[in-house]
Amino acid sequence: MKKFLYIFILLFIVGWAQAQQRVVYTINDGWKFTKGSPFEAQLAGCDDSSWETVNIPHTWNNKDADDETPGFYRGPAWYRKQLFVDKSQEGRQAVIYFEGANQEVRFYLNGQFVGEHKGGYTRFCFDITSHLRYGQENLFAIYVNNVYNPNIPPLSADFTFFGGIYRDVYLQFMNPVHIATNDYASSGVYIRTPEVNNSAASVEITTLLTNNTLQPAEIRVENVICDADGKEVKKTHAEIKLASGETKTDISKKIKIDSPRLWDIDDPYRYMVYTRILDKKKGTLLDEVVNPLGLRWFKFDSEKGFFLNGKGRKLIGTARHQDYFQKGNALRDELHVQDVLLLKEMGGNFLRVSHYPQDPVIMEMCDKLGIVTSVEISVVNAVTETEEFLQNSVEMAKEMVRQDFNRPSVMIWGYMNEIFLRRPYTEGKQLEDYYRFTEKVARALEATIREEDPSRYTMMAYHNMPQYYEDAHLTEIPMIQGWNLYQGWYEPDINEFQRLLDRAHKVYKGKVLMVTEYGPGVDPGLHSYQPERFDFSQEYGLVYHKHYLREMMKRPFIAGSSLWNLNDFYSESRVDAVPHVNNKGVVGLNREKKDVYWFYKTALSRRPILVIGNREWKSRGGVVNTAQKECIQSVPVFSNAEEVELFVNNKSLGKKKVEDNYALFDVPFVGGENLLEAVAVAGDSKLRDMLRIQFQLVGSQLKDEAIPFTEINVMLGSPRYFEDRTANVAWIPEQEYKPGSWGFVGGTSYRRKTGFGSMLGSDIDILGTDMNPIFQTQRVGIKSFKADVPNGEYSVYLYWAELESDKEREALVYNLGADSEQTFAGNRSFGISMNGTTVLDDFNIARDYGYARAVIKKFVVTVKDGKGLSVDFHKKEGEPILNAIRIYRNY
Ligand code: GCB
Ligand code: CA
């Protein structure tokens, strides 16, 4: 009797275990981590007690942007964890699944090597069934390396290659007879929709099935299509025999759905497909996976652009990088989700998932929000002429396609971004061979993707050297040409943009065209009322984007565009207004919205909008310029209403017509707090927006008692305004000295030569500060800086950085890779006196501090006898310079 009971219980347990569904959970927390290669780190004997404890998502480079050492750690590192695995999972299939780790991984379990993966942006998994110990602790040891590898793309790129296990890691347990997990970390299910129209759709489902038991298995495969409410719409089934150890493919019959509800930008309706396998005899459920199903049809036309479900839609959106302020690329899901929400809120309907496949939640969000996507592998800037490089690229393409195959949002697969930006040769046989090899890689990728997935389009993105791409035949290969265009930024003439579009339309007749990138650098803390190229001001951002959007809208043959970029992102080698950051985002590293974001939101939104711009300009300042002792500065108010009224401190400034999505108001600011209130009427809705701005008013006459002098903060050689957001200090532009007032005497604004023309100031990284803009402009040949301040004691801070280097900077191709180690060998020496007293006699910045290093000297000066302050510069060798000055009244 007892024996029977045992058998009964045993059967019950086995039966229960078999009927149990897939179990999937993350194992992110509490890993031991160290950089380097400790001896036998995969073995239990290795002592990891002194290692750091970290959580995944994790990168070891998130702090690298903040330090001054050029570059970032690129090398090996280890993660280790003891993990208890439940006894109840014994006898099941076990898999460890990585959403992504940069860039080479070797995985060890309980001391044994299990598998490896190359490439930092695609998902991968390993079967660990035979290595696990159940009801015990298991030693997981993961080697990750982000060192340069000539055979793994990307070789170089304008973003930081943050190393680490920077996306979620999971354990999965399932029945040994299951939907395959060994096909490039895909879901094992591939859903195709060979025909879709308004009246009917047909669906075809391919399922990969694995039998990892020692016996043959007879199973039933079911595919149940449910609507969004979970109601069954259609069901198919098939019976299949699997030999022991076999993985087999089942292809469903075509499933017809009548009057389908389509997936569209405005109504991203999703059916769900439940793929199940059951034990044929017992009917028990063995495994199940769920995939989204979007029914839609689309096409790109070289003249008329993009069509979704028969309707013409211009695709407008952004590209996106997967990093965040001080976090590097190690983002939890919510931060990814937020980005797609930001894009949707802006009115975008397109995401270029570039330069690499991204977190699964990004794709899920695009499916849910109706955002069309293009996903690309990270073959960027250059290739290595080896078979291994080619093979790795092809593998990445397969991973990409199979992993995001079922996403209704995906309509384009991309590969190769600006592949000739960093050509290793410029002429001759070597260049020819290089072109030929690159073409070979391109053709292999094109063929792979088309074979994997003939239902989507292919795309490649080029930089503005069409000749290179034509010579190598790359303009012919993909179905869509993407052009990355920066006229009015890297190149001087903004109107060249539309000429290039028209040229491409003419030269590449029949090719579908997209603008895959365009955008200017915008430091959220910089403003200018004389905006110009390379000044990084919010205002130039508006000038640029207004122009580009208008020109693209005029041209139906431009199927769509993805501005560069949704967010500011880290790029270690970059030297712009913010060190190591590419500032072309319409939102910042911390996702604060810049004015250009509001511009797009207003232009693209169909809902009534009214937003006072300059929203994040919290510490603002300026010089009195009205008889009423106010400072007039213009403020944009974004709206899609016809006209807008603005009140300032409860007084109306009247109504203004909106042009190009905003109205500019001349706002008279008073010192202290100002209340701005905008109102407008759009259709039936009354719109209202408010903004409080703190304004630091500077007198034009410094002895004016109505505006007691407290401080001025002036950037020389510059019309820019800059906010020191840490200390809430408002920096204002220079002006020429007039008696009673303040300003410079003599000199000119420093302009640096660029690859094309010149720019105001410099964009080199200034060492020793995180406030580059204060140091990046200067007055050269300055004689004096005078301020007719009242008697008292003052702190006078002088700011310098030597911007001139004798070594010619690297040619400014997209100003990447400029090195910060240059030394200044030239000579500039001058003396400085304050109200007649010599404070420095032989001041040579390069000699004492080197090139591009922030130097701040504070002097305490007493102003007497109503003489004001005069800082005088005495030329000895070269021209005296001054980058900025702060005059602060102590008493
Ligand atoms: C490009 C690249 C992108 C850069 C961008 C820029 O063309 O494709 O990776 O970040 O230009 O800002 O220079
Ligand atoms: Ca994730």
TrEMBL record:
Q: Entry's SUPFAM superfamilies?
A: (Trans)glycosidases, beta-Galactosidase/glucuronidase domain, Galactose-binding domain-like
Q: Outline the extent of the Glycoside hydrolase family 2 catalytic domain.
A: 304-594
Q: Which UniProt keywords apply?
A: Glycosidase, Hydrolase, Signal
- Which residue range or ranges hold the Glycoside hydrolase family 2 immunoglobulin-like beta-sandwich domain? 190-296
Q: Which GO terms describe its biological process?
A: carbohydrate metabolic process
Signal peptide per UniProt: 1-19
Q: Which residues form the Glycosyl hydrolases family 2 sugar binding domain?
A: 45-171
Q: Which GO terms describe its molecular function?
A: hydrolase activity, hydrolyzing O-glycosyl compounds
Q: Name one Pfam family in it.
A: Glyco_hydro_2_N
Q: Which residues form the Malectin domain?
A: 762-867
The residues covered by the DUF4982 domain are: 634-683
Q: Which protein family is it in?
A: Belongs to the glycosyl hydrolase 2 family.
Q: Which named protein is this?
A: DUF4982 domain-containing protein
Originating organism: Bacteroides xylanisolvens
Provide the taxonomic classification. Bacteria, Pseudomonadati, Bacteroidota, Bacteroidia, Bacteroidales
